Amino acid sequence: MAISNLQKARAAYQPKLPKALQGPVKAIEGAATQSVGNQAEIKELFPNTYGMPVITFEPGEPTALPPFNVGIILSGGQAPGGHNVISGLFDGVKSLNPANKLYGFILGPGGLVDHNYMEITSDIMDKYRNTGGFDIIGSGRTKLEEVDQFEKGIQILRELNIKALVIIGGDDSNTNACVLAEYYAAKKYGVQVIGCPKTIDGDLKNEQIETSFGFDTACKTYSELIGNIQRDCNSARKYWHFIKLMGRSASHIALECALQCQPNICLISEEVEAKAMSLDDVVTYIAKAVAKRAEEGNNFGTVLIPEGIIEFIPAIKKLIAELNDVLASPEAGTINSANEQIEFVKQHISRENLATFLSLPADVAAQLALDRDPHGNVQVSLIETEKLLSRMVADKLAVWKKSGKYVGKFGSQHHFFGYEGRCAAPSNYDADYCYSLGYNASRLIANGKTGYMSIIKNTTAPAAEWIAGGVPITMMMNLEKRNGKMKPVIRKALVELDGAPFKFFAAHREEWAKETAYVYPGPIQYWGPTEVCDQPTITLQLEKAK
Fold it and tell me: What is the pLDDT of residues 89-111, one digit of tens each?
């Protein structure tokens, strides 16, 4: 495998560990926990893994452990730092006993079901340390939900003498990990299941999980690109750049990039919903900012748009909810063409939602009515929201121009930053954080835990002061409708409008809208002063008031 000079240099980087993980540990147990919602229902669904305490690790005395093997799965979309979780787990299990082995299941959870695996050796691991991507074993989106899958999984786990399985994924993947842990515990199969919090979207966090891994690197990668565009924008001075960013269910990426780059406009989906804004309200908000800048002779600017914003517009959210139910019906499964599906939708939704459906541009309405993702939801990343908004802004400005309310020229460019950030080489923060998550998972395994997520806290402090431990996955769960049925899932964390990051943004956005106050963050720095290279996201610093 050919490697770049950067990769050679990064391979030599030794990620930092919390002090508690730098030697033997002892587990300190907190009070019993409960789920964030639907406590009775979640307890009934997970009787063997519900109510367990939060774990914190402290330095302890060495204990000899017999050899054991561990399996690892990368699940869902890629996020920077996945290889470091694996390298941390590898080093962690080897430190417990050099005879221990780590097996990777190929292409996600499907590798467990299909018995497709490889042993991860030192030679293999050393090629992937501190690199981006998930290519060491690949990832996949197979859902572990059926008894048949669990039983096929236990066959290969027993064959390989695997004591514990670590699943690296987002909220859905860790929900599956919890279901699997419960099943194996109920059957007394003796296999532990541990999760690790991954998603660049930043929506897998709570009081116990400060941030999901990959968020830091992805935001820094996108912010570099946005900064480059803003430099060009301020040079050519003739375009408004509409930039859509990853973040289907929450606007954390858009908010963090706004804090790093200071664009003229950043839409926050959660605010749009809270204010019950219509699509026209959103368009008018942007158009007014464009018109005000034009009065100063500035016919250029940048607009950041979360990819899921269309789902947060209340009228469209109601429409989508009914569409999801209608398209989950058995009758909908017999439809053979796109045109038939659109007509089926028109005939089966309420009058109010039909009016909303018909008010949308035909291409957007069609996208809402057609293919669903594996969860049965609209594939909002396929909706070109950035083009929809710029087109509607242009139309509104044209009307205003006729009445003298607008005096400028409006030209637009469009961008969607998604894949560009998912496999970037991890920042120092993510390299350290992910390595610690993996190493910590080995200690959860050694302490006999199952149904837990590996957590590292206090990460705005130097790495030696980070706090390691585990949180029961059931603690984060509630019931939500998926594919027309109520299912246990980990509750997503949305942008909090009363939180410090949003408040800071809200206090400055009028100034950024009027002035050209752009910040150009530049590329991720791997070497140099700590204040340049080792800083967490602005979001996390504001949340921790540091």
Answer: 999 999 999 999 999 999 999 99
